[in-house]
Design goal:
By secondary structure, this protein is of the alpha/beta class. The chain has a single domain, classed as TIM Barrel. Helix content is 24%, strand content 22%. The protein has six helices and eleven strands. Strands 1, 2, 3, 4, 5, 8 and 11 form a seven-stranded mixed sheet that branches. A two-stranded antiparallel ribbon has the order 6-7. Strand 4 and strand 5 form a beta hairpin. Helix 1 packs across helix 2. The longest helix has 12 residues. 45% of the residues are buried.
Length: 229
């Protein structure tokens, strides 16, 4: 079964995302763009996943629970999970390892928790876009312990990319899948990895159209994760 996807979308819980990136708006735009599966991967938290999942049910879109974690090395890691509960457990873990620096909405942007009909239900005070104190290995191990897959995010980018930061993708980290940004049209791929390409959308119009796909047995979080491991 062909699954058209975008596994790296930010909601308005990420301070760097537009406030139009609400659960229902994300689901609606993904439907318009012909996507079968999406993942909202906010920075170091999972608190809007339930709302996005409920909103996407209206459109028949599969939501893979996800988080974009930031390691102590300032490297971004896309973590996908089989269930909302495992993603939320990972989110609590990551939040507990953030520095106790409060968000300044006037500088960094709002961090809104929302429900499936785009009502604000809360906000997070701690600034989410900081690096945790966790090394890559620990984030990856925790994600895998919870049944998820950990993917080095936007490896073609200078900022927060593993290649620009470490000079390569170290073999000892044993990544199975790497993510390319939507701008990486001619990136030289290494045959030992699987690759996905995502939008890293912070505004609605950047959400991927019906271009990138996986061939899976069925379109479920578990089957998608199995494909990426």
């Amino acid at each position: 079964m062909r699954c058209f996807y975008d596994f790296h979308i930010h909601s308005c819980l990420s301070p760097c995302a537009d406030m139009d990136m609400t659960p229902h708006s994300i689901a609606g735009m993904s439907y318009i763009n012909g996507l079968n599966a999406i993942a909202v991967a906010d920075h170091n938290t999972a608190r809007n996943i339930r709302a996005v999942t409920k909103a996407a049910e209206e459109y028949g879109i599969c939501v893979v629970p996800a988080i974009e974690a930031e390691s102590a090395e300032n490297i971004h890691l896309l973590c996908l999970f089989p269930t909302i509960e495992t993603a939320e457990e990972m989110g609590k873990f990551l939040e507990s390892h953030l520095p106790p620096i409060k968000n300044r909405p006037d500088i960094f942007g709002e961090q809104w928790i929302m429900n499936e009909v785009d009502e604000k239900t809360g906000e997070i005070d701690v600034l989410l876009i900081n690096a945790t104190d966790l090394p890559i290995e620990e984030i990856k191990a925790k994600a895998e312990l919870l049944g998820g897959v950990c993917i080095a995010a936007h490896i073609d980018r200078e900022k927060n990319g593993i290649v620009a930061t470490l000079g390569c993708v170290p073999d000892y980290l044993e990544f199975s899948t790497l993510e390319l940004s939507r701008h990486a049209t001619d990136y030289e791929k290494d045959g030992k990895y699987k690759y996905i390409s995502d939008s890293d959308a912070h505004i609605l119009t950047d959400i991927s159209e019906k271009v990138n796909f996986l061939d899976v047995g069925e379109i479920t979080p578990a089957e998608i994760i199995k494909n990426l491991k």
